[in-house]
TrEMBL record:
<dbReference type="GO" id="GO:0005524">
    <property type="term" value="F:ATP binding"/>
</dbReference>
<feature type="binding site">
    <location>
        <begin position="57"/>
        <end position="61"/>
    </location>
    <ligand>
        <name>(6S)-NADPHX</name>
    </ligand>
</feature>
<keyword id="KW-0511">Multifunctional enzyme</keyword>
<comment type="similarity">
    <text>In the N-terminal section; belongs to the NnrE/AIBP family.</text>
</comment>
<dbReference type="InterPro" id="IPR036652">
    <property type="entry name" value="YjeF_N_dom_sf"/>
</dbReference>
<feature type="binding site">
    <location>
        <begin position="128"/>
        <end position="134"/>
    </location>
    <ligand>
        <name>(6S)-NADPHX</name>
    </ligand>
</feature>
<feature type="binding site">
    <location>
        <position position="327"/>
    </location>
    <ligand>
        <name>(6S)-NADPHX</name>
    </ligand>
</feature>
<comment type="similarity">
    <text>Belongs to the NnrD/CARKD family.</text>
</comment>
<keyword id="KW-0456">Lyase</keyword>
<keyword id="KW-0067">ATP-binding</keyword>
<feature type="binding site">
    <location>
        <position position="378"/>
    </location>
    <ligand>
        <name>(6S)-NADPHX</name>
    </ligand>
</feature>
<keyword id="KW-0630">Potassium</keyword>
<dbReference type="InterPro" id="IPR030677">
    <property type="entry name" value="Nnr"/>
</dbReference>
<dbReference type="GO" id="GO:0052855">
    <property type="term" value="F:ADP-dependent NAD(P)H-hydrate dehydratase activity"/>
</dbReference>
<dbReference type="Pfam" id="PF03853">
    <property type="entry name" value="YjeF_N"/>
</dbReference>
<dbReference type="GO" id="GO:0046872">
    <property type="term" value="F:metal ion binding"/>
</dbReference>
<feature type="binding site">
    <location>
        <position position="58"/>
    </location>
    <ligand>
        <name>K(+)</name>
    </ligand>
</feature>
Length: 503
């Protein structure tokens, strides 16, 4: 699913008005009716509705929602900011006043904000996507007052919480803290940024019939992975395939005290469909791996009988791909061995965890990572690799620029994990849940990504599909065991069901 910028959203409206054709007022009525229907579906008429309307088209949406709710038996009232208004706002204001003159009240200063009964809903229709500068003056006071009421009242934002910008940071301006955001047709980039989590609440994308030609043919830099994309990427198995068909992966993982990470990664690699898996572990982990995952072959740094960390040069290029990092440790000998690996193996590989921690200490190694490889930092690892940023939007730009500069795929893990591609595209993943915030989840993901690269998915397909499967398996695990009760191993256990139910 494409994520359009605020100017593109306005272009989509204009294109729909011209090519459907439909009047701008009727398109506003259509959008308002979707919001009214959502409110009616989730809240009974016993809840009085107070809609705070700005002077632009977002306020026009709010006025139309008031009229529609009144027609369906709700007690709805509009409070309007005074001043010059947009034409469609003016038309909806006249419609409402003609039918329900006592349901429109001016809002000229904070003292005129209504006193609310305990079960009231507050609907924010102040600014929408039209905001292009920070909110100042008494309007900031209105927003602060609304936020002070959110503990006792449900706040619903129309299109976007007022004060929130669609395409840039809003950290230094008042922003409505909505419980629900009712947005139209496509996601906004702002909804996916961690810094905005306190503002957007639960996001609900409502279709309003924007013209499909615009949505289909207009390019977008940002995307939210959807099931249609996943089904396009997924490659069904060849009936005549054999284990050689699905690749031979080398997983370099584990150190003394961290063999669990190696096991978790190996198990998920096998469960994600790799044909053959060889695990390179220190000698101290040989028996653990052989007993813990008999389907994997196992090699060690054999010249040292009781080695505790990876230190052997890997010169064999017969592997389809390599995954390295889970539980690896950061010993100096391990860093030297990683450097040799990057020199000798030039096909795309997966680097995670301690492999990235080593590279952050020796940053020149970034430029030795093979083109097309996948690295999977969490936010702190990303910061150690590439430096600090002032906000999430700056970090997103840094993520994308480094992916293009280095020619590698960078996965920034989070609620909506961001996947930056060397072609400039960025994909966000919607699957997953807080139950996956537990030790070992990243090791499982490394195994999945390594398995998909071994099966000769392109790196772009591997990262999009792998992250989606990882999150969806986590969602299935949480549904079965609870978010609190699940562990990283449960993600692997549910991978089979993720393939069956998700694709």
């Amino acid at each position: 699913m494409k994520i359009f910028s605020a100017p593109q959203v306005r272009e989509a409206d204009a294109y729909t008005i011209q090519h459907e054709p439909v009047s701008s007022l009727d398109l506003m009525e259509r959008a308002a009716s979707r919001c009214s229907a959502w409110i009616e579906e989730h809240f009974s008429p016993k809840h009085p509705v107070y809609i705070i309307c700005g002077k632009g088209n977002n306020g026009g949406d709010g006025l139309a929602i008031v009229r529609q709710l009144l027609l369906h038996g709700y007690d709805a009232t509009a409070y309007t900011i005074q001043g010059a208004t947009s034409p469609d706002h003016t038309a909806n204001l006249l419609r409402l006043r003609e039918s329900y003159p006592d349901k429109v009240h001016p809002l000229n200063d904070l003292q005129e904000f209504p006193s609310l009964p305990p079960d009231a809903l507050i609907v924010d229709a102040l600014f929408g996507t039209g905001l292009n500068k920070p909110i100042e003056g008494w309007m900031g006071g209105v927003i602060h007052h609304m936020n002070n009421l959110r503990q006792k009242h449900t706040i619903i934002a129309i299109d976007m919480p007022s004060g929130l910008r669609a395409d840039s940071t809003s950290l230094h301006t008042p922003v409505v803290q909505a419980h629900h955001t009712l947005s139209f047709e496509t996601w906004k980039l702002a909804f996916l940024m961690p810094e905005n989590a306190a503002f957007v609440g639960q996001v609900h994308i409502l279709p309003i019939g924007l013209h499909p030609d615009y949505l289909t043919h207009t390019p977008a830099r940002f995307h939210l992975t959807d099931l249609e994309t996943i089904r396009t990427i997924y490659q069904p198995r060849d009936p005549f395939g054999h284990k050689g068909t699905y690749g031979h992966a080398l997983l370099i993982a584990g150190s003394y005290g961290k063999m669990g990470a190696a096991l978790l990664s190996a198990r998920s690699c096998l469960r994600a469909g790799v044909g053959l898996l060889t695990c390179h572990v220190p000698a101290c982990g040989y028996e653990i791996m052989q007993l813990g995952e008999p389907a994997a072959m196992c090699i060690t740094d054999s010249e040292i009988q009781h080695s505790t960390h990876f230190h052997l040069d890997i010169a064999d290029a017969s592997y389809t791909t390599v995954g390295i990092g889970p539980g690896l440790g950061t010993h100096q000998q391990t860093a030297l061995a990683l450097e040799k690996l990057l020199e000798n193996f030039r096909s795309p590989m997966v680097l995670d965890a301690d492999a990235l921690n080593i590279i952050s200490v020796y940053p020149y190694l970034l430029y030795r990572i093979p083109q097309g490889s996948i690295i999977t930092p969490h936010p702190k690892e990303f910061e150690r690799l590439f430096g600090k940023t002032a906000n999430d939007f700056e970090r997103l730009e840094l993520l994308s620029s480094k992916s293009q500069e280095l020619g590698i795929y960078i996965l920034l893990k989070g609620r909506y994990s961001a996947m930056a591609c060397p072609d400039g595209a960025v994909y966000f993943n919607p699957t997953g849940n807080p139950g996956m915030a537990t030790g070992g989840s990243g090791d499982v993901l490394t195994g999945i990504l390594t398995a998909l690269l071994a099966q000769r998915y392109t790196p772009k397909a591997a990262i999009i599909l792998g992250v989606w499967l990882h999150g969806f398996a986590g969602d299935l695990a949480a549904a079965s065991l609870s978010q609190e009760g699940m562990t990283a191993g449960d993600i692997t256990t549910h991978l089979g069901a993720a393939f069956l139910q998700g694709i």
